[in-house]
C-alpha cells in the first residue's frame, strides 16, 4: 500500500514538472534546451551558430499589426547572421496564427515562443531576452515596425566602429491610430544630441527621446541584468541607464522606424493618478540612484519629490489625510530648493480645494 502511494506521488510530481516545462517550450522551429543546445521538432540535435544580432519581438493582441512588424524584420538586408526571438503572450485574437505562419516560413530565422498563459509585457520580454545569443540586441513590440531595410546593418556598423558606445538609436515617426489626420510627428527633434550620457536620462522624469524599436545595444553590457530590474514596471528607462553607465549612447539622425500610438491605450496622464504606478516609479528611481552610487542626487531627488507630490493627489489616497501628510513630508525632504512655508501654503490650498470638491460631489449624490 505504501509503495503504491509513493509511486502515485512520484507520477504526480513528474507530471507537474513536465507541465511547467511545456509552458516554456517554443512553438517553432526549435526547442531551446539551454542557450546553446537546440533540437528540432523530432528531437534531433541541431547546431545553430551564434548570430551577430538578436531581434527580440514581444506581441500581444496585435493581429492588425504583427504581420507588418514581421515583414519589416525578416526583410532586413545585412551581411551577417541574425536571429528573431519572438514571444507571443497568449493573445485571444489572430496573432497566434500569424506568428505560427511566419515561424513555419522562416524556420532558420524565427524562434517563436507561444505562451500557454499570459505573462505580461515585462516578463514576456525578459523570457525572450534570456534566449538571445547575438552580440547586439534589438527590441521591438509587435505593433511597431521598421521603415528602413538596412536598419540593422547601419546600427551594427555604428557599434562596430564606435567601440566605446554601449548602444545606439535613431529617429522614429509617430503614427496615431485614432484615424485622425495629423502632421507628421517625430520622436526626436533636429537638435537631438549625437551622444547621450547617464545624466541626460535623469534630467527628464520620463524618457521620451528613444523609441524602443530604434535602440540597438551590446548584449554583454546588460547580461545579466540586476535582480531589481524585473520589479520595475518600466523596462526602457532602467535599461538605458544601465547601458549609459557603461558607455555613451550614440544617435543616428535617420528615420528608420514607426512608433504607433493607440486610441484607448493607458496614457502617462492616466498613470499618474495610480498609487501602484507612482510607488513603482519611486522604487525605480531609488534603486537607480543606488545603482549609480548617488552621483546624480541633484537630479534624482527632485524627480522623487515630484512623484511623492503626485501621490498626495492619487485616487487611492483621496480621503487618506495620513498618507497625504506622509508623502508631503517626504517630498519636502527631497526638495532642497523649496521654502517650507511656501510648501505648507500649497499643501493647505490643495487639500482645501479637494475637500470643497468632494463636498460638492457628496451633495450632488444626495439630490
The name CATH uses for the topology of the largest domain is Spore Coat Polysaccharide Biosynthesis Protein SpsA, Chain A
Number of strands: 13
Question: In the CATH hierarchy, what is the architecture of the largest domain at level 2?
Answer: Alpha-Beta Complex
Order of helical and strand elements: HEEEEHEHEHEEHEEEHEHEHHHHH
N→C terminal distance: 72 Å
Structural class of the secondary elements?
alpha/beta
Average pLDDT number: 82
As a percent range, the share of helical residues equals 40-55%
| Strand fraction | 15-25%
CATH class of the largest domain: Alpha Beta
> How many structural domains can be distinguished in the coordinates?
2
Which term fits the overall shape?
A: globular
Biggest sheet descriptor: 10 strands, mixed
Q: Which residue ranges are poorly predicted, with pLDDT under 50 across at least 5 consecutive positions? A: 1-5, 7-13, 15-25, 27-48
| Gyration radius, rounded | 24 Å
Count of helices?
A: 12
> Which superfamily, in CATH terms, is the homologous superfamily of the largest domain?
Spore Coat Polysaccharide Biosynthesis Protein SpsA, Chain A
Amino acid at each position: 500500500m505504501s509503495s503504491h502511494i509513493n509511486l502515485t506521488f512520484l507520477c504526480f510530481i513528474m507530471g507537474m514538472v513536465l507541465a511547467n516545462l511545456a509552458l516554456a517550450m517554443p512553438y517553432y522551429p526549435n526547442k531551446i534546451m539551454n542557450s546553446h543546445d537546440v533540437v528540432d521538432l523530432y528531437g534531433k540535435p541541431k547546431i545553430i551558430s551564434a548570430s551577430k544580432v538578436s531581434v527580440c519581438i514581444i506581441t500581444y493582441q496585435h493581429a492588425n499589426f504583427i504581420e507588418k512588424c514581421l515583414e519589416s524584420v525578416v526583410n532586413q538586408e545585412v551581411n551577417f547572421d541574425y536571429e528573431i526571438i519572438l514571444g507571443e503572450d497568449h493573445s485571444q485574437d489572430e496573432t497566434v496564427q500569424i506568428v505560427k505562419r511566419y515561424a513555419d516560413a522562416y524556420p532558420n530565422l524565427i524562434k517563436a515562443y507561444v505562451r500557454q498563459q499570459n505573462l505580461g509585457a515585462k516578463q514576456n520580454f525578459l523570457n525572450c531576452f534570456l534566449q538571445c545569443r547575438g552580440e547586439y540586441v534589438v527590441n521591438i513590440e509587435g505593433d511597431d515596425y521598421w521603415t528602413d531595410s538596412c536598419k540593422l546593418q547601419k546600427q551594427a556598423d555604428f557599434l562596430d566602429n564606435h567601440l566605446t558606445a554601449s548602444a545606439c538609436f535613431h529617429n522614429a515617426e509617430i503614427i496615431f491610430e485614432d484615424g485622425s489626420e495629423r502632421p507628421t510627428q517625430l520622436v526626436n527633434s533636429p537638435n537631438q544630441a549625437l551622444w547621450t550620457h547617464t545624466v541626460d536620462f535623469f534630467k527628464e522624469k520620463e524618457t521620451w527621446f528613444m523609441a524602443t524599436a530604434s535602440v540597438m545595444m551590446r548584449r554583454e553590457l546588460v547580461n545579466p541584468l540586476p535582480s531589481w530590474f524585473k520589479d520595475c514596471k518600466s523596462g526602457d528607462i532602467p535599461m538605458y541607464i544601465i547601458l549609459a553607465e557603461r558607455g555613451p549612447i550614440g544617435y543616428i539622425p535617420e528615420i528608420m522606424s514607426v512608433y504607433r500610438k493607440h486610441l484607448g491605450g493607458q496614457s502617462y496622464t492616466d498613470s499618474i493618478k495610480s498609487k501602484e504606478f507612482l510607488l513603482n516609479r519611486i522604487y525605480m528611481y531609488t534603486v537607480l540612484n543606488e545603482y549609480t552610487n548617488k552621483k546624480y542626487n541633484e537630479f534624482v531627488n527632485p524627480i522623487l519629490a515630484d512623484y511623492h507630490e503626485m501621490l498626495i493627489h492619487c485616487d487611492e489616497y483621496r480621503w487618506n489625510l495620513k498618507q497625504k501628510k506622509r508623502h508631503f513630508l517626504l517630498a519636502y525632504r527631497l526638495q532642497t530648493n523649496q521654502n517650507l512655508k511656501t510648501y505648507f501654503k500649497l499643501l493647505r490650498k490643495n487639500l482645501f480645494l479637494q475637500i470643497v470638491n468632494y463636498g460638492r460631489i457628496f451633495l450632488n449624490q444626495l439630490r
